Each structure stands twice: as structure tokens, then as C-alpha cells.
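Lab notebook, page 48
Experiment: co-folding of the full assembly
Goal: obtain a model of how the components sit together before planning crosslinking
Operator: M.T.
Materials (sequences as entered):
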Amino acid sequence: MGFIKGERCSLRPSSFGTASKLALWVNDNEVTYLMVTGSKPIAYEASLEMLRPKDNEVLFSIWAEEQFIGTTGLYSIHPIAHSAEFRILIGDKDFWGRGIATECTQMLIEYGFNRLNLNMIWLGVNVENKPAIRAYEKSGFVCEGRLRQVQYRNGRYYDVLRCSILREEWEVR
Amino acid sequence: MKVKLAQIERTYLLKMRDWRNNDELRSRTREYSLLNMENQVDWFEKVSRDRNNEMFAIHCETGFIGVCGLCNIDWVNNNAEVSIYIGSKVHRGKGLGTEVLRLLEEKAFDEFNLHKLYAEIYSNNPVSEALFKRAGYKLEGTLKDHVYKCGEYRDSLMYGLVRYD
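Observation: model returned without errors.
Model output:
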């Protein structure tokens, strides 16, 4: 089952039924260690809001081995520029390091260009989040800038890499 | 004569209602029931909040003379329907429609990044048909006896313009 099926995982519609798990993850410092999310505690009710897509968003839940393991989606979809922001969270630690993020990134890129007719997809990632950067680069994202000291976590400032992939690059992949 | 596209204000609605209730205009548009002010205000409030319908007032030196817009904008397929009417009779037949269409195309392609525009023209409206043909729109299809206007079935002519053609 799944709206989009991959080899390692599948993407289903974002659903409120997953909120209690999501609330655990976004309050787990090990999960959010290098993320923007997680500086403040997030109540169950607020995690429901995170699962409700706004007009300019498409949200998915990530499922593997019949378990809900994370969320991903395209945010801030701009109807004129045909751009969107990609975000992903693998909350279930049993599934870290198994290529799930890479596969999701590729599925979302394909979905954004093929189904939503986007022209550019971008993302921001903490420079120290090496596994994430590797997954994004493997999927075709190109680093286009470094936002200096833009994030504050764990008692210090971090730089954030701004990456993007263009439709024309994806077409000749 | 120069025309400009401007925002539609609430104070224009009375004039619009009268234009849209005019028999001659109704014979060439989708309108078939008579509109009262409440209908007109409903339309205004809906369109003011709707990002998929961008409507404009047509202005010339003498003021507000008609309405036009990009309707049913589809942001994934990147197309929209063109709608134009010059309500003020004395301003018809002066080439203003051509000028308005050019301004709408500028909005559609340069500002909204659309790919295609289309128009549905009834077969009893040769003036509009000539206008769109002159502007480079191609007849893509004819829907036979698609509408009933002035006591007869009329064809719907579908005209389209693709940005890079």
C-alpha cells in the first residue's frame, strides 16, 4: 500500500493517526539534534498541526515494514515560480542508515517534477548533518550557498547549506 | 485610445450588473439568468479571495468601460481561460479588445508564468472570433450545438494560444 511505492519504503498520505509517534520524535533531542524543529517542546496538539497540509504544501508519511517511520513533503509551493522546499524527518532510529532518506528524496523529486510540474526544489541542511547531505547529493541536489551562523542549537551557532535541484538537471540525469 | 487594467472596486458593481444583464452581451457570454446586486456582490467577494481567478477592470480616459480576466487558472498545467467584455457600447469596435488581450497576455506570461491561454467563443460572436484570430489564437476544436442562445443551438469554438508558438 502507498501513494508512492519505493523499494525500501512507501509514501502514504499524512494522517492524524500518526501524531502520537511524531510527537515523541520531535521532542527527542537525539532525533532533532541538528534540526530547526526541537528547540521548543511540541505538544501532541501541535504535532497534529504539523500533519495537516496547508494550501501550498503536500505532505506524506513514510512507511517501512508496515510501520510509520517518518514524515516528508514539499512545502511553500510557489505557483508562479514553480518552486518548493523539500523536508524530511526519519524519526524511527531503527531505520537510520538504511538508505530510506535517499529513496524518499528521489521519490519526492520525481513527484515534484512529474506530478506538480515544478521547476526547482530547494532545501536547507545543517552543515554538520553529513548523512543528510550525502543523501541529498546522491539524489542530485547541488549546494548553492552557505548561510552563516543562521541556526542556533546545542549552545552554539551552525551554518546551513542551501541546496537545490533544477528540472533541467533532473531531466538529463 | 489607451486602455489600462486596474483592480475592480466595490463601487463598480452596479455598472457591472447592468452590463451583464444586457441582452446583447448575454447572447454571447455564459450568462443566462438575470443578476441582482446580491449575485453581483457574491461574485465580487468570491473573486476577491480567489487566487485562481484574476479579474481586472478595463479603464480608458473616460473611466471604467469593461471587465476582463484570467479565469480558472490551473497552476499545475499552467493554463487559464481568457475573459473580456467591453460593457460600454460607445467603446466597442475601436480595437480596444485587441489592446486588452495584449495586456492580459503580458500578465499571463510575464507575471504569472503561464504556458497556455484559451477562450471559448460562441458561433454567434464573429467579432470576438476575429479578435482572437488576429491575436494568433488557433481554433483547436468545435463543440457542436454546445449552447442554446437566442432561440438556437450554437457551436462553441475553442481557441488557444501556446506561449512559445
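Interpretation: The radius of gyration of chain A is 15 Å.
Next step: discuss with group before ordering constructs.
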